[in-house]
Design brief:
Blueprint lengths: L3 H20 L11 H8 L5 H7 L1 E2 L9 H5 L4 E4 L11 H15 L9 E4 L17 H7 L2 H17 L4 E2 L23 H15 L13 E5 L13 E2 L3 H8 L1 H8 L4 E4 L3 E2 L2 E2 L4 H11 L5 E3 L12 H11 L4 E2 L4 H13 L5 H17 L19 H14 L1 E5 L9 E8 L6 H5 L19 H8 L2 E7 L11 E7 L17 H12 L4 E6 L7 H5 L3 E6 L6 H7 L53 E6 L5 E6 L12 E6 L3 E3 L1 E6 L6 E6 L9 E7 L13 E8 L16 H8 L2
Parallel strand pairs: 1-11, 2-3, 3-4, 5-7, 6-8, 7-10, 13-14, 13-15, 15-16, 16-17, 18-25
Antiparallel strand pairs: 8-9, 12-17, 18-19, 19-23, 20-21, 20-24, 22-23, 24-25
Helix pairs in contact: 2-14, 6-15, 7-8, 7-15, 8-10, 12-13, 15-20, 17-20, 18-21
The structure holds beta-D-glucopyranose (2 copies).
C-alpha cells in the first residue's frame, strides 16, 4: 500500500509531466531536429485540407481576400512578371506584401509558413531600384562561373531583403533556335554552358548554407527541352530522341541537382507531342527516381491547364506525373476543389499527396522558414546597393563580345574628342534591361534606377564632348567618333518569337548614313540573341554585342575607353542569314558569320606589317560599286595589275573598271563595276593577282569566292540612283 505522502508526490510528478507534454513545443518546431524528423512529426498532424493547401500556389494578385490564406491553408504565393504590390513598387512595399501573407499563414492551426516565389531571373527584377544584371545569354558570354555565383548571392540577398524565399531561376534552357523569344534566358546554345552556370547559380542562391537569412531557394527551369522546340516556338514541341534530349537538355539539371537545387519547374513545352506537365517518365522516373532530385516540382503558370482534357483531369494527370506544387495561379478555389475530389475518388493516392507535401515541407524546414517566417527590415538597404551594382558592372564588362575592331579606333580617347551618341537604346534603361524587368515584357524608358550607356560614357570619360541623338536627326559632321546603339525592343515569353531577325531598316540606314559622312563608327548591339547584322557590321569600325546588360550601362564605357580589355566570347553561333538558323556548334556544314566561342579579347592594333584582313564586302546603294573593308588603312596601289573576279548569280562575270581607297574610310577599297547590280543579285569576289597593300606595308592575301553583301537588299523600292550618293543627300534618300 502506497503511503498518502507518496501518493501526493506521485500526483505532483504526473501533473508536471502532463503539463510539460502540452506546453512543450512540438518536435516539428524544434530547429535542433533534422528536417526529416520534423517532417515525420508534422505530416501525421495534418488534415487533408492542410495538405492540399501546401500544394496550392496562387499569384498574389489573384487573392481578393487575404483570409483565404488562413482558411484554405495556402502553402505558397508567387508574384508573376507584372504582379507587384498594389501599394507601390519599392523594396519596402514588397516586404510589407510578403509579411501580410505570412501573417495570415501564421494564423493557421499548425503555423506552417508560406514560401513566396518571384522571377528573379537577372536580379530581383520585379522591384524598382534593385540591381539588374545582364540576362543569362550575357552571363554565358563571360564564361566566368565564379562571377555568376557572386551574382546569384547578390540576387538572393536582394530578394531575401524583401522577405521573399524563392526565385524561379536559374533558367538552364539550352536555346537551339534563335527564333525563340526566350533565347536570352538561357546561357547559350550548348549544354556545357547550362552546366557551367546552372550549378554555381544554385549554389550562390542557396548560399552554401540554406537557412541563412540571405539565402533563398533556387528553381531550375523549365524541365525539360524548352529550348529545343521545332522552329523555336515558345511552349512548342521538342522533337528529339531521348538520347538527344538527355545529351542537350539534361546536363544543366544534373549540375543543379548536384548543388542541391530545392525546386524544379516543369516546362510548358512538349516532348515528341506529350506535354511535359503530364510526363510521368521524365518528372518521376528520371528526375526524381533516377537522378535523385529530392526537392519539389512546381508547375509553370497555368501550365497544367494545357494538358488535354478538362481541368479535373489536368489536376489528376499532372500530380500523378510528379508535379508537387501547382502554380494555379488564379482560380485557386477551383483547383482545391478539384484536387480534393480527385483524392476522395482515389484518382490520386494519399501516398502521392504525402510525397508531394513532404517534399514541400522539407524545403521549408531547410530554408529555416519556421524559425524566421517574416522579412528582416534591417536587410532592406541591401537592395540596389553600390557594392552590388559594382558586380553587375563587372558582369556587363565581361559579357561584351567584341566582334569587329579596325585598327586605331579603340580604346577611344578619354578627352578632347567630340563623340556622337546615337540611337534610342543609348539612353534608355528599359531597353538595355529587356524583358522581365519591373514588368513582365519589360518596357522602354526609365523603368528603374541605373546608368544608361550614354551616362556611362559621360561618367567614365567626362572630358569628351557628347552629342546625343535618338535618331539620325543631327547636323554635326565634325564629330571624331559615332557610338551608335541599336537593337531590339524588350520582350519576354509568348511575345518574343521572330521569323526574321533582321535589324530595323531605320537602324541599318542610320549607320550607312554616318558611314558616308566618314565618321568612325562604334556600334553597340542591345539584343537578346544574335541578329542579322551583315551590312551594319560592314559599315562599323567596331562592333560590340552587348546582349541585355541590365542597369549598369557604364560597364560598356569601361571597355570602350580601355579601362578593361574585352573578355566575352560568343555563347551562341552567329548566323549570316535566316536560312542558316537554327545553327549550332557541332553542326555539319557549320559556316556561321561568327562561330561559337568567337570574340576579340584585346584592344591592341594588328601587328605592323601584318597582312590586312578582308572583313567584309558590300555592293553599295548605287549598285555599281563594291566596297572591300579591311582591318587597317589601305593605300592606293601603284600596281595596276591587281585583278578581281566578280561573279553574279553563280555564272555571270562582272568587270571591275577601277579601284581606289575610299575617301570616307581608309580601311575601304572601292571597286567600280562595269555594270549595275540589282536587288537580289548574289555576288562573290575573288582577288587573283596584284599587290594590294596596307599603309603599314602589309600585303593582301589572295582570296576566292568571298561573299558580297548586297546592300540593295536593304533598300526599299528601286535602286536606280545617279552615281555616288553624297552624305548630305543620304537622309533624303531614306526619308530620315
Ligand atoms: C514562365 C516562367 C515563370 C512563371 C512565373 C511562366 O509563364 O514560363 O518562367 O517562372 O511564368 O512568372
Ligand atoms: C506572368 C507570367 C505569365 C503571364 C500569363 C504574367 O503576369 O508573370 O508568368 O505567363 O502573366 O498571362
Amino acid at each position: 500500500m502506497i503511503k498518502p505522502k507518496f501518493l501526493f508526490l506521485l500526483q505532483i510528478i504526473l501533473f508536471i509531466s502532463i503539463t510539460e507534454m502540452f506546453s512543450q513545443t512540438p518536435p516539428f518546431l524544434d530547429p535542433n531536429l533534422s528536417p526529416q524528423d520534423r517532417l515525420n512529426d508534422l505530416l501525421p498532424r495534418m488534415t487533408l485540407d492542410e495538405k492540399i493547401g501546401q500544394m496550392t500556389q496562387p499569384d498574389h494578385a489573384a487573392i481578393q481576400n487575404l483570409n483565404d490564406v488562413t482558411t484554405l491553408f495556402i502553402g505558397s504565393i508567387l508574384s508573376g512578371g507584372s504582379s507587384d504590390p498594389s501599394s507601390g513598387n519599392s523594396p519596402l512595399d514588397w516586404a510589407n506584401l510578403y509579411d501580410s501573407f505570412q501573417t495570415k499563414a501564421m494564423q493557421t492551426r499548425l503555423q506552417i509558413p508560406i514560401i513566396y516565389g518571384v522571377d528573379g531571373v537577372h536580379g530581383h527584377s520585379n522591384v524598382i531600384g534593385a540591381t539588374i544584371f545582364p540576362h543569362n545569354i550575357g552571363i554565358g558570354a563571360t564564361r566566368n562561373p565564379s562571377l555568376a555565383k557572386e551574382i546569384a548571392k547578390i540576387t538572393a540577398k536582394e530578394i531575401a531583403a524583401t522577405g521573399i524565399d524563392w526565385t524561379f531561376a536559374p533558367c538552364v534552357a539550352v536555346p537551339r533556335n534563335e527564333r525563340w523569344g526566350r533565347t536570352y534566358e538561357g546561357y547559350g546554345e550548348t549544354p556545357e554552358l547550362a552546366q557551367m552556370f546552372g550549378g554555381v547559380f544554385v549554389a550562390g542562391l542557396q548560399n552554401d548554407s540554406l537557412n541563412s537569412p540571405t539565402s533563398i531557394a533556387g528553381c531550375a527551369k523549365h524541365y525539360m527541352g524548352d529550348g529545343g522546340t521545332t522552329n523555336g516556338i515558345d511552349q512548342g514541341n521538342t522533337e528529339v530522341t531521348e538520347a538527344e534530349l538527355r545529351a542537350i537538355h539534361l546536363p544543366g539539371y544534373l549540375e543543379a541537382i548536384e548543388n542541391n537545387v530545392l525546386t524544379v519547374m516543369s516546362s510548358y513545352s512538349s516532348w515528341n507531342g506529350q506535354k511535359m506537365h503530364g510526363n510521368h517518365y521524365l518528372l518521376t522516373e528520371v528526375l526524381k527516381n533516377e537522378l535523385g532530385f529530392a526537392g519539389f516540382v512546381i508547375s509553370d503558370w497555368a501550365g497544367i491547364d494545357q494538358l488535354p482534357g478538362d481541368y479535373h483531369s489536368d489536376v489528376v494527370e499532372s500530380i500523378n506525373a510528379g508535379v508537387d506544387m501547382i502554380m494555379v495561379p488564379n482560380e485557386y478555389q477551383t483547383f482545391i476543389t478539384e484536387l480534393k475530389s480527385a483524392i476522395t475518388n482515389n484518382e490520386i493516392s494519399m501516398e502521392r499527396i504525402d510525397d508531394a507535401v513532404s517534399r514541400i515541407l522539407l524545403v521549408k524546414f531547410q530554408l529555416g522558414l519556421f524559425e524566421n517566417p517574416y522579412s528582416d527590415r534591417a536587410l532592406l538597404a541591401e537592395v540596389g546597393k553600390i557594392e552590388h551594382r559594382n558586380v553587375a558592372r563587372q558582369a556587363v564588362r565581361e559579357s561584351l563580345v567584341l566582334l569587329k575592331k579596325n585598327d586605331n579606333v579603340l580604346p577611344l580617347p578619354k578627352s578632347g574628342s567630340k563623340i556622337l551618341v546615337i540611337g534610342e537604346h543609348a539612353n534608355n534603361i528599359g531597353l538595355q534591361c529587356g524583358g522581365w524587368t519591373v514588368q513582365w515584357q519589360g518596357a522602354s524608358g526609365k523603368v528603374t534606377e541605373g546608368t544608361t550607356i550614354l551616362e556611362g560614357l559621360q561618367k567614365v570619360a567626362a572630358s569628351n564632348e557628347y552629342v546625343f541623338s535618338q535618331n539620325v536627326n543631327f547636323t554635326q559632321t565634325d564629330a571624331d567618333y559615332a557610338i551608335v546603339v541599336i537593337g531590339e525592343q524588350p520582350y519576354a515569353e509568348m511575345f518574343g518569337d521572330r521569323d526574321n531577325l533582321e535589324l530595323e531598316s531605320a537602324q541599318i540606314n542610320m549607320i550607312r548614313k554616318l558611314k558616308n559622312m566618314g565618321i568612325p563608327i562604334v556600334t553597340i548591339l542591345i539584343s537578346g540573341r544574335p541578329m542579322l547584322i551583315n551590312s551594319v557590321l560592314h559599315n562599323s569600325d567596331v562592333f560590340v554585342a552587348a546582349w541585355l546588360p541590365g542597369t549598369e550601362g557604364d560597364g560598356i564605357a569601361e571597355v570602350l575607353f580601355g579601362d578593361f580589355q574585352p573578355k566575352g566570347i560568343l555563347p551562341v553561333s552567329w548566323a549570316k542569314s535566316m536560312s542558316q538558323i537554327p545553327i549550332n556548334y557541332g553542326d555539319t556544314n557549320y559556316e556561321p558569320l561568327f562561330p561559337y566561342n568567337f570574340g576579340i579579347n584585346s584592344l591592341a592594333n594588328s601587328e605592323v606589317g601584318s597582312n590586312p584582313v578582308l572583313q567584309s564586302a558590300i555592293v553599295t546603294e548605287d549598285g555599281i560599286h563594291v566596297e572591300l573593308s579591311f582591318n587597317k588603312s589601305m593605300v592606293n596601289s601603284q600596281n595596276t595589275n591587281a585583278t578581281f573576279q566578280l561573279i553574279k548569280n553563280g555564272t555571270t562575270q562582272v568587270g571591275v573598271s577601277s579601284f581606289v581607297v575610299s575617301e570616307a574610310n581608309e580601311n575601304v577599297l572601292v571597286l567600280a563595276l562595269s555594270e549595275r547590280m540589282s536587288k537580289g543579285d548574289v555576288v562573290t569576289i575573288s582577288y587573283q593577282s596584284g599587290n594590294l597593300k596596307s599603309a603599314d606595308g602589309g600585303i593582301v592575301d589572295f582570296f576566292s569566292n568571298f561573299e558580297i553583301i548586297n546592300f540593295l537588299n536593304y533598300i526599299a523600292g528601286i535602286n536606280i540612283l545617279p552615281g555616288k550618293v553624297e552624305a548630305e543627300h543620304f537622309s533624303d534618300m531614306f526619308g530620315t
